Amino acid sequence: MSAKIRLYVEHPLGAGQSIPLTKEQAHYLFGVMRQRLGGAVALFNGRDGEWQAEVTEAGKRGGVLTCVDQSKPLQMPPDLWLIFAPIKKARTDFIVEKAAEMGAARILPVGTEYTNSERIRQDRLQAHAVEAAEQCGGTYVPEVGELQKLSQLLDHWPAERQLMFCDEAEVGNALQLAAQDHKDAPWAILIGPEGGFSEKERKRLHAMAQSHVVSLGPRILRADTAAVAAMTLWQQALGDW
């Protein structure tokens, strides 16, 4: 039994475990995807790996799946945070989706002095992270944090966590990530807002002992493009690629 449909669930997964479906999940499986009794569905919950399951009850408002066997173990990403300033709705969604696909362990929206968006829908962004994991075959779903001020995040910065600071003011300079001495440390990547960082923020970030200032090439990138470029550089240099 090989499932073509992957579904994220909250329940524990294990051999013989029954998984009740929500009304929305039942509608998706039986109304949209036309699954029937005996159909195969791959399940994951971010903790127990991926399990092949069988449809054992099917209805318009609910249903039950039963786990048969494990098809993938839990694959944890590197201990990497992606920190970014929210931008327009669709482009913020894009950042969250790509961060989940590319192996971020946590996704942290922050407000900077020049951030255009002052609020987010954390639950909606978390749902985008789940959808990305469903579609790309991941077994782990990164946590999307609530919006917080960058200054507050830096006030409580963990001493051991290194920071890849993508400084748009350094565009065109050959500042690459050279941090092999910290290969086994936890890391974070910081992407700025559309208006860039303020001078006060830049001075503070440059002064941090954990900060590694990088340039993302000779051209200024949009925030969503910068997030993908930065994660690619980090994963290639220090990650699990």
Structure summary:
The chain contains 6 helices and 12 strands. Helix content is 29%, strand content 24%.
Overall description:
The longest helix is centred in the last third of the chain and has 16 residues, at 223-238. Strands 6, 7, 8, 9, 10, 11 and 12 form a seven-stranded parallel sheet that branches. A five-stranded mixed sheet has the order 1-3-4-5-2. Helix 2 (89-102) packs across helix 3 (122-136) and helix 2 packs parallel to helix 6. Helix content is 29%, strand content 24%. The two termini are 30 Å apart. The protein is of the alpha/beta class. It is built from six helices and twelve strands.
Keywords:
about 240 residues, alpha/beta, 5-stranded mixed β-sheet, 7-stranded parallel β-sheet
Mean pLDDT, all residues: 92
Q: How much helix is in the residues? A: 25-40%
Count of alpha and pi helical runs: 6
How large is the share of residues in beta strands? 15-25%
Task: Please give the alpha-carbon distance between the first and last residues.
Answer: 30 Å
Summing up helix and strand content along with how strands pair, one would put the structural category as alpha/beta
User: How are helices and strands ordered from N to C?
Assistant: EEHEEEEHEHEEHEEHEH
Strands, count: 12
The biggest beta sheet, please? 7 strands, parallel
Radius of gyration, Cα only, in angstroms?
Answer: 20 Å
What is the molecular shape?
A: elongated
Low-confidence runs of at least 5 consecutive residues? none
